[in-house]
Write the structure tokens for this entry.
Amino acid sequence: MAFMQLEGLGKRYGAIDAVVATDLSVEKGEFVSLLGPSGCGKTTTLQMIAGFVDVTSGRILLDGRDITHAKPASRGLGVVFQSYALFPHMTVQDNVAFGLRMRKVPASEVHQRVAKVLQLVRLTQHAERYPRELSGGQRQRVALARALVIEPPVLLLDEPLSNLDANLREEMQFEIRRIQREVGITTLMVTHDQSEALSISDRVVVMQAGRVTQIDVPYTLYEHPRTEFISGFVGKANRLCGRRDSNGEVQVCAAGEGDLSISLRPEKIDLRPAGEGRLQGQLSSRFFLGSQWLYSVSTPLGELTVVRSNDGSPPLNEGTAVGLDWASELLRVLSCDEVPA
């Protein structure tokens, strides 16, 4: 049996199903992300696990124990909120120690455990500071330390990086993963950022309109999306029309001429000199992304997006005629969306 299990978990508000019959098994020490757009039910799912939202149907099992209707405090889970929820009048070490003191842990043990976790999150030198004296990343690490110091069986992260700027977000992604691996704690994170989920998770759970639509390791999720929604939400994708030839091979065709929905990632398309490749087109626009160039190419099949690595060579000019090519095995056949967008 998995360390944590959701069995047919559901939440209904009046006539609205926020979460529908969700099944999920999480192994001990695993890092799992719930990924989806706003309103898809991911935060409600996390709040049901934490005990902050009542469960309408189904069960939550933790290490074989049914905690579906247990009070939040009795579950003993560590939670990091989107806002961090730090006490502004307390120092860093007092914020971290708060949960232990509420549990009547002896003072000597509190001091020892707080010192240990502050070292883990690299904040020992800031123990006497107040939250207002810290950067956003440091406040985030205080919240993480406060959740970890009680030694919870599961760590729940609710959009933990959403208040940080882009550069700090990336840095803190890997910091969270480092800490999680060092502690070995089972972790469930809610995020709407696909790059965040793909970069640090063992598995990603994609949710849409209250339902789980795919659960996979990041690489498989990106390379083999099951539905049209997942293809477009997890990374960039060109949506094309397709059909199978007499040999059963998938071929791209003009809209209305095929019965398959096809996904082709922008980085899987090669730009060739005009006259070469499977398809001809003209560059309509280009965007510089630092490590990459993103091109929009007008073709008989419609506007396609192509991503090319920035190798230092001059970019192609808008209006340039080009050929486009790709390997047939990189085309992905998609199912129609199983739930409403």
Remarks:
- The two ends are 33 Å apart (CA to CA).
- The domain at 4-228 is CATH 3.40.50.300 (Rossmann fold).
